[in-house]
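Milestone M4 deliverable, item 7.
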Amino acid sequence: MKVFKATAAALTLALAGNLTADACTRVVFQGDSTTNYIMVGRTLDWRTPIPTNLYVYPAGVKKQSMPEGPMLTWTSKYGSVLAVSYDGGVTEGMNNQGLVMNGLFCKGTIYKEAVGPDDKTPVMSLAVIVSFFLDNFATVNEVDNWLQKNEFDIFGKTFDGGTVSTLHWALTDKSGMTIVMEYVDGELTLHKGADLKVLTNDPPLPQMEAINDYWKKVDGVNMLPGTVRSSDRFVRASFFINHVPAGANYTDALASLSSIMGTVSVPYGYEIEGEPNVSSTQWRSIADATGQKYYFKFAYSTADFWIDLNKLMLTPGSPILKLDTTKYESLAGCVNNHLKVSKGFTPMW
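Output delivered:
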């Protein structure tokens, strides 16, 4: 475990009163040495609908982390597919180097308070933080090295009627290496390793792993916790992802991960009062880091659909593309032909 001191400003994300403070379960499937498949599954759970469109950005796009003041500016090195909530904030995505990043809700997150108007530390909006990492890095080691040498504050407000956007993030590359970014008492704590296959919500990862250690002694063959609580989903996902064949062919590997995501999904329409992050699964995705396909399915959809990055132009000068999911009741199969040229989404700073 690595701890990185960060001056992250009070992180409360606002996307015009809405934002992607996501609850969910994240699971990494790792193939064996003969297949080398790396796939990242994720569910998004929340009490209210979160409209989500998909965007494909090429390399060579100039971006910034805030509209004004101290900020990070960059030109994207890599193309990526992004899930954008409310057409204003990136929830997750995968770049064409096989780096996958997902943001998850974590109530235990505590960010460092702003240090004052004279602070020159660049500020990062939660609306674009996923884009920043996918645009600039190809591997988890590159992300780790950058975080060890750089500081940034994070900006945002509340969403969904006052919910504070307390998040943690995980990134996985096509080697299977994962890094988890968590803010604890004002410090950015980094957990790195190929064994970090599961992430849910609160508590933070070290406490979650302690809970999971207890259940390992019980043995999931005998009993697994079955509620929709974050810790129970973590335990179920951890058991199953380590008990499916790692040497499976592509179709079976995809089916294994998809089935596991089903075991940790929350039935559509289910809600626990006061616990928005353990409510209905709105959608789930599987990012195939090695094969460059991004699979997606809404809870109400009759089939999965996917975007194949291998068949898209992502070089500088290529157009930004958008899949407006509101225009299609039921998508199935490869949807590259449904992507339309777009000016891109407007970040809700």
